[in-house]
Design goal:
The chain is of the alpha/beta class and about 350 residues long. The protein has two domains: about 1-125 and about 260-315, 3-Layer(aba) Sandwich (D-Maltodextrin-Binding Protein, domain 2); about 130-260 and about 315-345, 3-Layer(aba) Sandwich (D-Maltodextrin-Binding Protein, domain 2). The chain has 13 helices and eleven strands. It has helices at about 1-25, 40-50, 65-70, 90-95, 135-140, 170-200, 205-215, 230-240, 275-285, 285-290, 295, 310-315, 325-345, and strands spanning about 25-35, 55-60, 80-85, 100, 125-135, 160-165, 200-205, 225-230, 250, 260-270, 300. Strands 1, 2, 3, 4, 5, 6, 7, 8, 9, 10 and 11 form an eleven-stranded mixed sheet that branches. Helix 6 (about 170-200) packs across helix 13. The termini are far apart.
Length: about 350
Protein backbone atom coordinates (compact mmCIF):
# COMPACT_ATOMS: atom_id res chain seq x y z
CA UNK A 1 0.00 0.00 0.00
CA UNK A 2 2.80 2.40 0.90
CA UNK A 3 4.64 1.47 -2.30
CA UNK A 4 1.50 2.20 -4.34
CA UNK A 5 1.09 5.62 -2.70
CA UNK A 6 4.75 6.38 -3.34
CA UNK A 7 4.42 5.50 -7.02
CA UNK A 8 1.24 7.57 -7.31
CA UNK A 9 2.91 10.57 -5.70
CA UNK A 10 5.92 10.17 -7.97
CA UNK A 11 3.62 10.08 -10.99
CA UNK A 12 1.91 13.30 -9.91
CA UNK A 13 5.29 15.00 -9.54
CA UNK A 14 6.33 13.91 -13.04
CA UNK A 15 3.03 15.17 -14.49
CA UNK A 16 3.49 18.51 -12.72
CA UNK A 17 7.03 18.89 -14.03
CA UNK A 18 5.93 17.97 -17.57
CA UNK A 19 3.00 20.38 -17.59
CA UNK A 20 5.12 23.17 -16.16
CA UNK A 21 7.84 22.58 -18.75
CA UNK A 22 5.25 22.59 -21.54
CA UNK A 23 3.84 25.83 -20.20
CA UNK A 24 7.27 27.43 -20.07
CA UNK A 25 7.98 26.24 -23.63
CA UNK A 26 4.80 27.85 -24.95
CA UNK A 27 5.70 31.17 -26.52
CA UNK A 28 3.50 34.25 -26.72
CA UNK A 29 3.00 36.14 -29.96
CA UNK A 30 1.74 39.71 -29.64
CA UNK A 31 -0.29 41.22 -32.45
CA UNK A 32 -0.79 44.99 -32.38
CA UNK A 33 -4.08 46.11 -33.93
CA UNK A 34 -6.61 48.92 -34.10
CA UNK A 35 -9.59 48.89 -31.75
CA UNK A 36 -12.02 47.61 -34.40
CA UNK A 37 -10.19 44.33 -34.94
CA UNK A 38 -12.20 41.26 -34.01
CA UNK A 39 -11.94 37.49 -34.52
CA UNK A 40 -13.80 34.48 -33.17
CA UNK A 41 -12.37 33.31 -29.85
CA UNK A 42 -12.72 29.64 -30.83
CA UNK A 43 -10.63 30.20 -33.95
CA UNK A 44 -7.76 31.69 -31.99
CA UNK A 45 -7.91 28.99 -29.33
CA UNK A 46 -7.66 26.28 -32.00
CA UNK A 47 -4.66 27.99 -33.62
CA UNK A 48 -2.95 28.37 -30.24
CA UNK A 49 -3.46 24.70 -29.40
CA UNK A 50 -2.28 23.45 -32.79
CA UNK A 51 0.90 25.57 -32.66
CA UNK A 52 1.58 25.52 -28.90
CA UNK A 53 1.64 29.31 -28.72
CA UNK A 54 -0.41 32.01 -27.06
CA UNK A 55 -1.75 35.03 -28.94
CA UNK A 56 -1.86 38.39 -27.15
CA UNK A 57 -3.87 41.21 -28.72
CA UNK A 58 -2.63 44.75 -28.18
CA UNK A 59 -5.38 47.11 -29.29
CA UNK A 60 -3.94 50.58 -29.70
CA UNK A 61 -6.59 53.07 -30.84
CA UNK A 62 -7.54 53.73 -34.46
CA UNK A 63 -5.33 52.59 -37.33
CA UNK A 64 -3.37 55.83 -37.51
CA UNK A 65 -2.71 56.01 -33.78
CA UNK A 66 -1.66 52.36 -33.64
CA UNK A 67 0.77 52.81 -36.53
CA UNK A 68 2.34 55.87 -34.91
CA UNK A 69 2.93 53.85 -31.72
CA UNK A 70 4.53 51.07 -33.74
CA UNK A 71 6.83 53.55 -35.50
CA UNK A 72 7.83 55.32 -32.29
CA UNK A 73 8.68 52.00 -30.62
CA UNK A 74 10.61 50.55 -33.59
CA UNK A 75 13.84 50.23 -31.57
CA UNK A 76 12.02 48.20 -28.93
CA UNK A 77 8.90 46.85 -30.66
CA UNK A 78 5.74 46.39 -28.64
CA UNK A 79 4.58 43.43 -30.72
CA UNK A 80 5.62 40.74 -33.18
CA UNK A 81 2.93 41.36 -35.78
CA UNK A 82 0.97 44.46 -36.77
CA UNK A 83 -2.49 44.38 -38.35
CA UNK A 84 -4.47 47.37 -39.52
CA UNK A 85 -2.31 49.46 -41.83
CA UNK A 86 -4.61 50.45 -44.68
CA UNK A 87 -3.82 52.01 -48.04
CA UNK A 88 -4.27 55.52 -46.65
CA UNK A 89 -1.29 54.93 -44.32
CA UNK A 90 0.52 52.43 -46.55
CA UNK A 91 3.41 54.62 -47.73
CA UNK A 92 4.00 56.01 -44.24
CA UNK A 93 4.28 52.49 -42.85
CA UNK A 94 6.77 51.37 -45.49
CA UNK A 95 8.89 54.52 -45.28
CA UNK A 96 9.22 53.96 -41.52
CA UNK A 97 10.98 50.66 -42.34
CA UNK A 98 9.42 48.70 -39.48
CA UNK A 99 8.36 45.53 -41.32
CA UNK A 100 10.18 42.38 -42.40
CA UNK A 101 9.61 41.03 -45.92
CA UNK A 102 7.65 37.78 -45.93
CA UNK A 103 6.21 36.16 -49.05
CA UNK A 104 3.60 33.93 -47.45
CA UNK A 105 2.58 30.85 -49.47
CA UNK A 106 -1.01 31.93 -48.82
CA UNK A 107 -0.48 34.91 -51.16
CA UNK A 108 -1.28 32.57 -54.05
CA UNK A 109 -4.92 32.88 -52.95
CA UNK A 110 -4.88 36.71 -52.88
CA UNK A 111 -5.74 38.73 -56.03
CA UNK A 112 -2.91 40.78 -57.49
CA UNK A 113 -4.90 44.03 -57.33
CA UNK A 114 -4.80 43.88 -53.52
CA UNK A 115 -1.03 43.33 -53.34
CA UNK A 116 0.49 46.81 -53.14
CA UNK A 117 3.96 45.94 -51.85
CA UNK A 118 6.18 43.93 -54.24
CA UNK A 119 8.56 43.24 -51.33
CA UNK A 120 5.75 41.69 -49.26
CA UNK A 121 6.38 43.69 -46.11
CA UNK A 122 2.64 44.33 -45.91
CA UNK A 123 0.25 41.55 -46.97
CA UNK A 124 -3.46 42.17 -47.72
CA UNK A 125 -5.98 40.68 -45.29
CA UNK A 126 -9.32 42.34 -46.08
CA UNK A 127 -10.95 45.20 -47.99
CA UNK A 128 -14.09 47.31 -47.94
CA UNK A 129 -15.60 50.03 -50.09
CA UNK A 130 -16.43 53.34 -48.38
CA UNK A 131 -19.45 54.82 -50.11
CA UNK A 132 -22.84 56.47 -49.72
CA UNK A 133 -25.63 54.54 -47.99
CA UNK A 134 -29.26 55.61 -48.16
CA UNK A 135 -32.51 54.92 -46.33
CA UNK A 136 -34.80 53.10 -48.78
CA UNK A 137 -38.02 53.81 -46.87
CA UNK A 138 -37.33 57.56 -46.61
CA UNK A 139 -36.87 57.96 -50.36
CA UNK A 140 -39.95 55.88 -51.12
CA UNK A 141 -42.04 57.85 -48.65
CA UNK A 142 -40.85 61.17 -50.09
CA UNK A 143 -41.24 60.03 -53.71
CA UNK A 144 -37.64 60.92 -54.53
CA UNK A 145 -35.18 58.75 -56.44
CA UNK A 146 -32.28 57.71 -54.21
CA UNK A 147 -28.80 58.95 -55.17
CA UNK A 148 -27.06 56.86 -57.82
CA UNK A 149 -23.79 58.77 -58.00
CA UNK A 150 -21.69 61.32 -56.10
CA UNK A 151 -22.89 64.09 -58.40
CA UNK A 152 -26.49 63.61 -57.26
CA UNK A 153 -25.64 65.02 -53.83
CA UNK A 154 -25.11 68.54 -55.20
CA UNK A 155 -28.46 68.67 -57.01
CA UNK A 156 -31.13 70.97 -55.47
CA UNK A 157 -33.51 68.10 -54.67
CA UNK A 158 -30.87 66.54 -52.39
CA UNK A 159 -30.31 69.61 -50.25
CA UNK A 160 -30.25 68.94 -46.48
CA UNK A 161 -30.11 65.16 -46.99
CA UNK A 162 -26.48 64.12 -46.49
CA UNK A 163 -24.20 63.54 -43.51
CA UNK A 164 -20.46 62.84 -43.94
CA UNK A 165 -17.58 62.32 -41.51
CA UNK A 166 -14.72 64.73 -40.92
CA UNK A 167 -11.62 63.37 -42.73
CA UNK A 168 -9.37 64.84 -40.03
CA UNK A 169 -10.95 62.65 -37.34
CA UNK A 170 -12.54 59.72 -39.17
CA UNK A 171 -11.20 56.88 -41.30
CA UNK A 172 -14.32 56.60 -43.51
CA UNK A 173 -14.37 60.40 -43.66
CA UNK A 174 -10.83 60.38 -45.06
CA UNK A 175 -11.72 57.58 -47.47
CA UNK A 176 -14.72 59.53 -48.77
CA UNK A 177 -12.56 62.62 -49.26
CA UNK A 178 -10.18 60.44 -51.28
CA UNK A 179 -13.11 59.14 -53.32
CA UNK A 180 -13.92 62.73 -54.34
CA UNK A 181 -10.26 63.44 -55.13
CA UNK A 182 -10.02 60.30 -57.24
CA UNK A 183 -13.27 61.18 -59.01
CA UNK A 184 -12.86 64.92 -59.60
CA UNK A 185 -9.08 65.30 -59.38
CA UNK A 186 -7.09 67.83 -57.38
CA UNK A 187 -8.42 70.56 -59.65
CA UNK A 188 -12.08 69.76 -59.07
CA UNK A 189 -12.66 68.13 -55.68
CA UNK A 190 -12.85 71.40 -53.71
CA UNK A 191 -15.41 72.78 -56.12
CA UNK A 192 -17.49 69.66 -55.50
CA UNK A 193 -17.21 70.17 -51.74
CA UNK A 194 -18.18 73.85 -52.07
CA UNK A 195 -21.38 72.74 -53.77
CA UNK A 196 -21.97 70.13 -51.07
CA UNK A 197 -21.61 72.85 -48.45
CA UNK A 198 -24.08 75.03 -50.36
CA UNK A 199 -26.43 72.03 -50.31
CA UNK A 200 -26.11 72.06 -46.50
CA UNK A 201 -24.15 68.87 -45.94
CA UNK A 202 -23.77 67.91 -42.26
CA UNK A 203 -20.30 66.97 -41.00
CA UNK A 204 -20.00 64.54 -38.08
CA UNK A 205 -16.87 63.84 -36.09
CA UNK A 206 -16.93 60.09 -36.69
CA UNK A 207 -18.85 57.20 -38.20
CA UNK A 208 -20.92 56.37 -35.10
CA UNK A 209 -22.10 59.96 -34.74
CA UNK A 210 -22.98 60.14 -38.43
CA UNK A 211 -24.70 56.77 -38.63
CA UNK A 212 -26.43 56.53 -35.26
CA UNK A 213 -26.83 60.24 -34.62
CA UNK A 214 -28.01 61.58 -37.99
CA UNK A 215 -28.93 58.76 -40.38
CA UNK A 216 -32.71 58.25 -40.56
CA UNK A 217 -32.45 54.47 -41.02
CA UNK A 218 -30.59 54.06 -37.73
CA UNK A 219 -31.79 56.94 -35.56
CA UNK A 220 -34.28 59.78 -35.22
CA UNK A 221 -31.96 61.92 -37.32
CA UNK A 222 -32.95 63.89 -40.39
CA UNK A 223 -30.34 62.71 -42.93
CA UNK A 224 -31.34 59.80 -45.22
CA UNK A 225 -27.88 59.68 -46.87
CA UNK A 226 -24.72 58.80 -44.93
CA UNK A 227 -21.12 57.92 -45.73
CA UNK A 228 -20.61 54.31 -44.63
CA UNK A 229 -19.54 51.02 -46.22
CA UNK A 230 -20.84 48.85 -49.05
CA UNK A 231 -21.03 46.08 -46.44
CA UNK A 232 -23.25 48.11 -44.09
CA UNK A 233 -26.58 46.80 -45.50
CA UNK A 234 -25.79 43.16 -44.60
CA UNK A 235 -24.74 44.33 -41.14
CA UNK A 236 -28.15 45.96 -40.69
CA UNK A 237 -29.87 42.71 -41.65
CA UNK A 238 -27.56 40.56 -39.50
CA UNK A 239 -28.02 42.62 -36.34
CA UNK A 240 -31.74 43.29 -36.76
CA UNK A 241 -33.84 42.16 -33.79
CA UNK A 242 -36.56 41.10 -36.23
CA UNK A 243 -35.86 38.82 -39.22
CA UNK A 244 -35.62 40.84 -42.43
CA UNK A 245 -36.17 39.67 -45.99
CA UNK A 246 -34.79 42.90 -47.45
CA UNK A 247 -32.09 45.31 -46.35
CA UNK A 248 -33.62 48.67 -45.31
CA UNK A 249 -30.53 50.48 -46.59
CA UNK A 250 -28.57 50.34 -49.84
CA UNK A 251 -25.06 51.27 -50.93
CA UNK A 252 -24.13 53.44 -53.88
CA UNK A 253 -21.27 51.80 -55.79
CA UNK A 254 -21.43 53.54 -59.16
CA UNK A 255 -18.13 53.93 -61.00
CA UNK A 256 -15.69 56.19 -59.13
CA UNK A 257 -18.17 56.82 -56.32
CA UNK A 258 -16.35 54.72 -53.71
CA UNK A 259 -12.89 54.37 -52.20
CA UNK A 260 -11.55 50.91 -51.48
CA UNK A 261 -9.80 50.51 -48.14
CA UNK A 262 -7.42 47.57 -47.99
CA UNK A 263 -6.05 46.41 -44.62
CA UNK A 264 -2.67 44.73 -44.29
CA UNK A 265 -0.68 42.63 -41.85
CA UNK A 266 3.10 42.69 -41.41
CA UNK A 267 5.81 41.19 -39.21
CA UNK A 268 7.58 43.84 -37.15
CA UNK A 269 11.34 44.10 -37.28
CA UNK A 270 12.93 43.15 -33.98
CA UNK A 271 10.54 40.28 -33.27
CA UNK A 272 12.15 37.44 -31.36
CA UNK A 273 9.52 35.03 -32.62
CA UNK A 274 9.83 35.38 -36.39
CA UNK A 275 8.90 31.77 -37.22
CA UNK A 276 5.76 31.86 -35.10
CA UNK A 277 4.95 35.32 -36.46
CA UNK A 278 5.07 33.87 -39.97
CA UNK A 279 2.70 31.10 -38.88
CA UNK A 280 0.28 33.73 -37.59
CA UNK A 281 0.43 35.69 -40.85
CA UNK A 282 -0.16 32.48 -42.82
CA UNK A 283 -3.13 31.74 -40.59
CA UNK A 284 -4.62 35.22 -41.11
CA UNK A 285 -4.46 34.75 -44.89
CA UNK A 286 -5.85 31.20 -44.79
CA UNK A 287 -9.43 30.43 -45.79
CA UNK A 288 -10.23 29.41 -42.20
CA UNK A 289 -9.42 32.85 -40.80
CA UNK A 290 -10.63 34.70 -43.88
CA UNK A 291 -14.10 33.17 -43.72
CA UNK A 292 -14.41 34.49 -40.17
CA UNK A 293 -13.74 38.10 -41.24
CA UNK A 294 -17.09 39.18 -42.76
CA UNK A 295 -19.26 38.63 -39.69
CA UNK A 296 -16.57 39.85 -37.28
CA UNK A 297 -15.57 43.13 -38.96
CA UNK A 298 -18.06 43.42 -41.85
CA UNK A 299 -15.46 43.76 -44.55
CA UNK A 300 -14.56 41.40 -47.40
CA UNK A 301 -11.85 38.72 -47.11
CA UNK A 302 -8.82 39.20 -49.34
CA UNK A 303 -8.56 35.45 -49.98
CA UNK A 304 -10.49 34.77 -53.20
CA UNK A 305 -11.25 31.19 -52.10
CA UNK A 306 -12.96 32.22 -48.86
CA UNK A 307 -16.70 31.59 -48.90
CA UNK A 308 -18.92 34.53 -47.96
CA UNK A 309 -21.74 34.12 -45.42
CA UNK A 310 -25.26 34.09 -46.84
CA UNK A 311 -26.09 37.59 -45.56
CA UNK A 312 -23.13 38.96 -47.54
CA UNK A 313 -24.10 37.03 -50.67
CA UNK A 314 -27.64 38.45 -50.51
CA UNK A 315 -27.07 42.03 -49.39
CA UNK A 316 -23.46 43.10 -49.91
CA UNK A 317 -22.14 44.74 -53.07
CA UNK A 318 -18.63 45.38 -54.36
CA UNK A 319 -17.68 48.39 -56.46
CA UNK A 320 -16.46 47.42 -59.92
CA UNK A 321 -14.54 50.65 -60.43
CA UNK A 322 -13.67 52.45 -57.19
CA UNK A 323 -11.97 55.84 -57.35
CA UNK A 324 -8.21 55.46 -57.32
CA UNK A 325 -5.63 57.50 -55.42
CA UNK A 326 -2.08 56.12 -55.16
CA UNK A 327 -0.78 55.47 -51.60
CA UNK A 328 2.29 57.64 -52.18
CA UNK A 329 0.09 60.54 -53.29
CA UNK A 330 -2.00 60.13 -50.15
CA UNK A 331 1.06 60.22 -47.92
CA UNK A 332 2.51 63.28 -49.67
CA UNK A 333 -0.72 65.29 -49.77
CA UNK A 334 -2.82 64.06 -46.83
CA UNK A 335 -2.30 67.09 -44.57
CA UNK A 336 -2.66 69.55 -47.45
CA UNK A 337 -5.89 67.94 -48.65
CA UNK A 338 -7.40 67.87 -45.16
CA UNK A 339 -6.49 71.51 -44.52
CA UNK A 340 -7.97 72.57 -47.87
CA UNK A 341 -11.13 70.56 -47.13
CA UNK A 342 -11.42 72.10 -43.65
CA UNK A 343 -11.10 75.62 -45.06
CA UNK A 344 -13.66 74.92 -47.77
CA UNK A 345 -16.29 73.03 -45.75
CA UNK A 346 -16.01 74.12 -42.11
CA UNK A 347 -14.71 77.68 -42.13
Amino acid sequence: MCRANYLLSYLFILLFIFSSTASWARQTITIMTHDSFNVSKELIETFEKENNISIRFLKSGDAGAALIQAILSKENPLADVFFGVDNTFFSRALEADIFLPYESPQLAQIPDNLKLDPQYRLLPVDYGDVCLNYDKAWFKKNNLAPPADLVDLIKPEYKNLTVVENPATSSPGMAFLLATIGRFGEEGYLDYWKKLRENNVTVAGGWEDAYYGHFTAASKGDRPIVVSYASSPPAVVYYSEKPLTEAPTAAVVADQSTFRQIEFVGILKGTKNEQHAKKLVDFMLSTTFQEDIPLQMFVFPANMNAQLPEVFVKYAVVAEKPALVKPEAIETNRDKWIEAWTTTVLR
